[in-house]
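#random but structural
TW: two for the price of one
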Amino acid sequence: MNFKEGTIKPPTHDEIRERVMDFFEDMGMLYRRNYLDREMIRDTFSYYGSGWWNACADYIMEERKRNGGDETIYSDFEKLKDVFEDLPVKDTKEFLLDEIRII
């Protein structure tokens, strides 16, 4: 299956699983509560955090809209963007292709 050639159809909103978003939301909550160190998060997760935020941002904004504009939905994940800031981020499609290859 090759995403580039269009043989993989992107999932609809209702088909998306939230496991990765939940992981980064939990990480953001732990960071907010000072259980995780900024440098550790940045050095260990910045590439993946940036890539997954870019891949999930539209979904998250839609979830907020569907829930009456609830800005708290994945807000801790969103706050991690400041930790990941100014680090190079690949094209989202290329990032997701790399993630698929890991499996």
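TW: number two ↓
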Amino acid sequence: MKKLVCVLTFGIFGLTMFTGEYASEVKGQTKVVVKKKKWSHRKKGAVIGGVAGATTGAIVSRRKGRGAVVGGAVGAGAGYLIGKRKDRRGG
């Protein structure tokens, strides 16, 4: 069961990493390219850190629910801080 949860979580996590920057729509003969608004590093870091932390907390902890909540909160906070640093540096 743990392996299944791990595989599904990292599968979803992997799909979020490869989302495109541009969305294309075809209307008749012309092609319209709509540029999506990019996420800030803070937002990306918080989401990725939260998911990774919740997954790790659920796997490691004896109490799955509490471990997932604590791990998600810690991971989201750490990811936010790392993203904030990247935003300030311009990276």
